[in-house]
């Protein structure tokens, strides 16, 4: 059996609105009718009262009553008054209610139908009563002669006559009500026709189901989805889009230009034409962007889909490296066969010494490079990469050498520095250098000497320095600012978007992304004018910090905090201003973590002497001083942040991370907005975003439970019971507090089986 489709939402609203308009109009009509009826009845009562009182007050009426035949005198008089006043009847009667007058002469002498008691008592009253003429509104008043009631007079108007008058008066309001009903119906039809067009004729259940499907699909897909309105503001973004673009919870409603995205990605999102599978780097990822304008007579916005291309890009790079290795091996096999043939030929010709010399010459050169790389670079990933790139460069006629000052011992690199990022950084730099040194653009000068690429790799004092030089044509100063942007390349015909240029112009963008992801800096070119002989490109990590604190316990805590922040390294810890000066003379640093109260003087005095000596290190003041004058003076001397004691690790970590972002900002600002955004990294601290699945209120509750526990700490089970959540959920929040440095975790033994974990709140330094 076919189930009829429910009426559309627009149709349902139309029916409800029509009923509502009809009810309102009907209510108006009833109200008007009742009001007119009451007013007409009151008018009739007043008219009847006026007639009755006029007769009762006439001197001739008591005189006629005293006469022998009152009817003969009063009947003509009563009829005259009835016609003049417009009432239905005027009846004069004796105190016993026997009529002397009546519109129907046959009713004269009969008893009056109605109440007379109040009138006999001397009062005038009105009532609605059914008499000989039917229901009527009547007034009864006494007739006095010398103060004595000698008769009664009653005047009234029939209800039928009153109703006829009301019906006559209701003609205009009824017309108004009918017009309002028609106009209301037409207006409702127009509004609902527009609603039907916008809802596509769907009913309420279909719209609700579509909303549920929409929400489920929006949050289920791993790809990022953005919807921009006509003013290029974010109207909708799913979880994947927030993650891929690094957006916060306040992203909805903001303009694309306010999100701090790379210029190339911002341009793609703002483009009026569709974009298909464009690759763009962000601060952390490589994303594939597709855009599609939404039009409906006018531009309504843009739908944007984002796919994470980071892993695929890395795998593509590794595949390219493998292919390069394979090509190098095939070329080397071919060359080995040629050398072997030459050796055999020389031996057959009896020239054995030449054969030995020829066979070992190339091997000695290759072995020398291998020995140099293995001896200088103890990091296996970098050593393997350098040897592979050397073979590839040799096949292209480019000599790859390692600078004498290169030195990286095994184990000196930070464990949190991913090997894949090292391959991305150094591999792309070498590939670009080899292409520049061995390309056609080398010119006549390049052809007179063998193309060369020199790699410097040095790790010392927790800092990794990678530098790549080549003998190519170099980079002009005008190109330096844009060389790390997506799509930049020295071959104009191969830019992104040009035919055959897929995959070009993204290598240096990937390098910058990997460097910034690990808290480093990258620089290109060298000096003014055209860069002859190529330009160095270096990646450097981390930011070196000198802790200046008079309290040894606090100094150790601050140093521990700094070491726990990725991209930072403690260069030293000193407890006085003089010790800080001596340290900076022999070992300059990037940042001072400075206590303002030192045993040999104020911290600002130390800072003034450092500035006078040309020391330009930035300063984060760590102090309990709350004097705003001191704060202002510190800012004038280059203090970029003030952190008030006491504080937790999370507070200092956030300031350090923002400082690293501030240092990473490079190039020329496009306008005031970008300048403000760079400065806001230091001036507008914000709470760090919680991991997915954690909420702020629940975290506060778990924190209170943890801080309220005794010195032995609290278990996840106890925390869950205190807050009202499960043990597993409580453990996730406790582990987050451990990860952020606000709590510590320790196992407690003594029970059979696995030890139980206890969590304890860490007091701020």
Describe this protein's structure.
The chain has 765 residues and is an alpha+beta fold. It has five domains: 13-167, 2-Layer Sandwich (Beta-Lactamase), CATH 3.30.450; 221-312, Beta-Lactamase (2-Layer Sandwich); 351-436 and 451-486 and 506-518, Histidine kinase-like ATPase, C-terminal domain (Heat Shock Protein 90, 2-Layer Sandwich), CATH 3.30.565; 543-682, Response regulator (Rossmann fold); 696-761, Winged helix-like DNA-binding domain superfamily/Winged helix DNA-binding domain (Arc Repressor Mutant, subunit A, Orthogonal Bundle). The protein is 48% helix and 19% strand. The protein has 25 helices and 23 strands. A five-stranded antiparallel sheet has the order 6-5-9-8-7, sandwiched between helices. A five-stranded mixed sheet has the order 10-11-12-14-13.
């Amino acid at each position: 059996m076919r189930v009829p489709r429910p009426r559309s939402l627009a149709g349902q609203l139309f029916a409800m609105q029509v009923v509502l308009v009809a009810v309102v109009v009907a209510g108006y009509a009833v109200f008007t009718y009742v009001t007119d009826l009451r007013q007409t009845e009151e008018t009739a009562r007043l008219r009847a009262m006026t007639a009755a009182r006029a007769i009762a007050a006439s001197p001739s009426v008591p005189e006629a009553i005293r006469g022998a035949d009152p009817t003969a005198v009063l009947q003509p008089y009563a009829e005259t008054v009835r016609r003049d006043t417009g009432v239905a009847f005027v009846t004069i009667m004796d105190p016993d209610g026997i009529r002397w007058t009546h519109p129907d002469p046959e009713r004269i002498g009969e008893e009056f139908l109605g109440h007379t008691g109040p009138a006999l008592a001397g009062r005038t009253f009105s009532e609605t009563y059914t008499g000989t003429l039917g229901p009527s509104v009547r007034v009864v008043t006494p007739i006095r002669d010398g103060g004595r009631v000698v008769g009664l007079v009653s005047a009234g108007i029939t209800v039928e006559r009153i109703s006829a008058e009301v019906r006559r008066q209701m003609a205009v309001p009824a017309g108004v009500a009918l017009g309002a009903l028609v106009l209301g119906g037409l207006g409702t039809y127009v509004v609902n026709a527009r609603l039907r067009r916008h809802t596509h004729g769907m009913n309420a259940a279909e719209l609700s189901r579509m909303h549920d499907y929409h929400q489920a699909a929006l949050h289920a897909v791993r790809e990022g989805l953005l919807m921009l309105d006509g003013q290029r503001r974010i109207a909708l973004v799913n979880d994947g889009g927030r993650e891929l673009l690094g957006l916060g919870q306040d992203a909805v409603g903001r303009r694309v230009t306010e999100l701090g995205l790379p210029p190339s990605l911002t341009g793609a999102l703002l483009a009026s034409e569709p974009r298909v599978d464009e690759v763009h780097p962000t601060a952390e990822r490589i994303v594939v962007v597709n855009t599609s304008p939404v039009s409906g007579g006018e531009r309504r916005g843009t739908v944007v889909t984002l796919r994470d291309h980071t892993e695929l890009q890395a795998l593509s790079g590794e595949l390219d490296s493998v292919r390069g290795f394979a090509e190098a091996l095939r070329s080397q096999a071919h060359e080995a066969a040629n050398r072997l043939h030459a050796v055999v030929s020389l031996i057959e010709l009896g020239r054995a010494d030449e054969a030995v010399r020829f066979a070992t010459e190339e091997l000695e050169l290759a072995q020398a490079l291998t020995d140099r790389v293995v001896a200088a670079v103890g990091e296996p990933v970098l050593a393997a990469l350098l040897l592979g790139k050397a073979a590839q460069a040799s096949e292209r006629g480019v000599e790859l050498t390692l600078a004498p000052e290169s030195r990286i011992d095994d184990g000196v690199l930070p464990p949190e520095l991913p090997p894949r990022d090292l391959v991305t950084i150094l591999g792309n730099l070498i590939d670009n250098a080899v292409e520049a040194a061995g390309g056609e653009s080398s010119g006549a000068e390049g052809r007179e000497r063998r193309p060369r690429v020199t790699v410097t790799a040095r790790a010392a004092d927790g800092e990794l320095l990678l530098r790549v030089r080549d003998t190519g044509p170099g980079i002009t100063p005008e190109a330096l600012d844009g060389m790390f942007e997506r799509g930049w390349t020295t071959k104009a015909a191969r830019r992104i978007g040009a035919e055959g240029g897929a995959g070009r112009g993204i290598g240096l963008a990937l390098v910058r992304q990997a460097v910034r992801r690990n808290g480093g800096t990258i620089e290109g070119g060298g000096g003014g004018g055209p860069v002859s002989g190529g330009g160095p490109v270096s990646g450097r990590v981390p930011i070196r910090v000198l802790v200046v604190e008079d309290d040894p316990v606090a100094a150790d805590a601050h140093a521990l905090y700094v070491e726990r922040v990725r991209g930072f390294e403690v260069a030293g810890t000193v407890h006085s201003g003089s010790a800080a000066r001596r340290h900076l003379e022999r070992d300059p640093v990037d940042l001072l973590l400075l206590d303002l109260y030192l045993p040999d003087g104020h911290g600002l005095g130390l800072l003034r002497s450092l500035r006078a000596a040309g020391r330009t290190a930035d300063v984060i003041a760590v102090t309990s001083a709350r004097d705003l004058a001191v704060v202002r003076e510190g800012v004038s001397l280059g203090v970029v942040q003030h952190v008030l004691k006491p504080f937790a690790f999370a507070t200092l970590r956030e300031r350090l991370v923002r400082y690293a972002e501030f240092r990473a900002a490079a190039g020329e600002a496009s306008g005031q907005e970008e300048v403000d955004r760079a400065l806001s990294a230091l001036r507008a601290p914000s709470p760090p975003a919680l991991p997915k699945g954690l909420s702020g209120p629940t975290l506060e509750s778990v924190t209170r439970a943890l801080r309220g526990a005794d010195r032995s700490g609290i278990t996840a089970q106890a925390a869950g019971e205190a807050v009202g959540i499960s043990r597993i959920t409580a453990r996730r929040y406790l582990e987050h507090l451990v990860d952020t440095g606000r709590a510590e975790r320790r196992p407690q033994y003594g029970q059979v089986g696995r030890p139980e974990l206890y969590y304890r709140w860490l007091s701020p330094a």
